[in-house]
Amino acid sequence: MSLRSAMDRLLGRSTPSSSATAPSGGGRAAAVSHLQEFVGTRVGVEAYVEPPNAQTPATVLLVATDGEWTRRRVPDERTGFDVARSLGVPVYNVRFTGYPQRMRDWNSAQRAERRRGSGRS
After folding, report:
1. Domain ranges of the chain
2. Which residues fall in a compositionally biased region of kind Basic and acidic residues (predicted)?
Protein backbone atom coordinates (compact mmCIF):
# COMPACT_ATOMS: atom_id res chain seq x y z
CA MET A 1 0.00 0.00 0.00
CA SER A 2 1.29 3.45 -0.86
CA LEU A 3 1.98 6.15 1.70
CA ARG A 4 -0.78 8.25 0.15
CA SER A 5 -3.46 5.55 0.42
CA ALA A 6 -2.43 4.64 3.98
CA MET A 7 -2.53 8.28 5.01
CA ASP A 8 -5.89 8.74 3.24
CA ARG A 9 -7.28 5.87 5.31
CA LEU A 10 -5.83 7.33 8.51
CA LEU A 11 -7.35 10.68 7.64
CA GLY A 12 -10.72 9.06 7.01
CA ARG A 13 -10.76 9.39 3.24
CA SER A 14 -11.90 6.21 1.51
CA THR A 15 -11.08 7.62 -1.94
CA PRO A 16 -9.45 10.82 -3.10
CA SER A 17 -12.79 12.05 -4.47
CA SER A 18 -14.46 11.62 -1.08
CA SER A 19 -12.18 14.12 0.65
CA ALA A 20 -14.99 16.67 0.68
CA THR A 21 -16.97 14.44 3.04
CA ALA A 22 -14.00 13.49 5.22
CA PRO A 23 -13.66 15.02 8.67
CA SER A 24 -11.60 18.19 8.89
CA GLY A 25 -8.64 16.03 9.81
CA GLY A 26 -6.84 18.63 11.91
CA GLY A 27 -6.16 16.12 14.66
CA ARG A 28 -5.53 13.29 12.26
CA ALA A 29 -3.20 15.35 10.11
CA ALA A 30 -1.31 16.30 13.26
CA ALA A 31 -1.05 12.60 14.20
CA VAL A 32 0.36 11.71 10.78
CA SER A 33 2.82 14.59 10.97
CA HIS A 34 3.87 13.54 14.47
CA LEU A 35 4.50 9.94 13.40
CA GLN A 36 6.52 11.04 10.38
CA GLU A 37 8.56 13.43 12.54
CA PHE A 38 9.20 10.73 15.14
CA VAL A 39 10.46 8.28 12.51
CA GLY A 40 12.56 10.97 10.84
CA THR A 41 14.30 12.11 14.02
CA ARG A 42 14.89 8.82 15.85
CA VAL A 43 17.11 5.82 15.13
CA GLY A 44 15.88 2.25 14.70
CA VAL A 45 12.16 2.94 15.01
CA GLU A 46 9.83 -0.06 15.02
CA ALA A 47 6.03 -0.02 15.03
CA TYR A 48 3.71 -2.10 17.19
CA VAL A 49 0.03 -2.23 16.34
CA GLU A 50 -2.17 -2.44 19.41
CA PRO A 51 -5.69 -3.88 19.13
CA PRO A 52 -8.67 -1.90 20.36
CA ASN A 53 -10.03 -2.61 23.83
CA ALA A 54 -12.92 -1.40 25.94
CA GLN A 55 -11.18 1.90 26.76
CA THR A 56 -9.18 2.77 23.64
CA PRO A 57 -9.35 2.28 19.89
CA ALA A 58 -6.61 0.60 17.87
CA THR A 59 -3.28 2.40 18.07
CA VAL A 60 0.11 2.36 16.44
CA LEU A 61 3.03 2.57 18.84
CA LEU A 62 6.44 3.67 17.57
CA VAL A 63 9.50 2.68 19.63
CA ALA A 64 13.02 3.98 18.95
CA THR A 65 16.25 2.09 19.67
CA ASP A 66 16.72 3.95 22.97
CA GLY A 67 13.20 2.99 24.10
CA GLU A 68 11.59 6.39 23.59
CA TRP A 69 8.08 5.86 22.26
CA THR A 70 4.97 7.55 20.98
CA ARG A 71 1.45 6.28 20.37
CA ARG A 72 -1.34 7.51 18.12
CA ARG A 73 -4.87 6.27 17.47
CA VAL A 74 -5.77 4.69 14.15
CA PRO A 75 -9.22 3.79 12.81
CA ASP A 76 -8.44 0.06 12.89
CA GLU A 77 -5.57 -2.41 13.10
CA ARG A 78 -5.27 -2.75 9.33
CA THR A 79 -4.74 0.99 9.01
CA GLY A 80 -2.11 0.79 11.76
CA PHE A 81 -0.16 -1.81 9.78
CA ASP A 82 -0.55 0.19 6.57
CA VAL A 83 0.61 3.42 8.18
CA ALA A 84 3.64 1.75 9.75
CA ARG A 85 4.61 0.14 6.45
CA SER A 86 4.18 3.46 4.65
CA LEU A 87 6.56 5.04 7.17
CA GLY A 88 9.13 2.43 6.17
CA VAL A 89 9.57 0.86 9.61
CA PRO A 90 9.26 -2.76 10.70
CA VAL A 91 5.81 -3.46 12.10
CA TYR A 92 4.66 -6.06 14.62
CA ASN A 93 1.40 -7.14 16.17
CA VAL A 94 1.79 -6.49 19.89
CA ARG A 95 -0.55 -9.40 20.64
CA PHE A 96 2.13 -11.78 19.42
CA THR A 97 5.39 -9.97 20.23
CA GLY A 98 4.58 -8.08 23.40
CA TYR A 99 6.24 -4.76 24.16
CA PRO A 100 10.01 -4.39 23.75
CA GLN A 101 12.09 -4.39 26.92
CA ARG A 102 13.82 -1.17 25.86
CA MET A 103 10.46 0.62 26.09
CA ARG A 104 9.90 -0.59 29.65
CA ASP A 105 13.46 0.41 30.58
CA TRP A 106 12.93 3.89 29.12
CA ASN A 107 9.66 4.28 31.07
CA SER A 108 11.43 3.29 34.31
CA ALA A 109 14.23 5.77 33.66
CA GLN A 110 11.70 8.55 32.98
CA ARG A 111 9.84 7.81 36.23
CA ALA A 112 13.10 7.88 38.18
CA GLU A 113 14.06 11.18 36.57
CA ARG A 114 10.69 12.73 37.43
CA ARG A 115 11.07 11.60 41.06
CA ARG A 116 14.52 13.18 41.24
CA GLY A 117 13.18 16.37 39.65
CA SER A 118 10.21 16.66 42.00
CA GLY A 119 12.49 16.32 45.01
CA ARG A 120 14.33 19.53 44.11
CA SER A 121 12.24 22.32 45.64
Report:
1. 3-118
2. 1-11
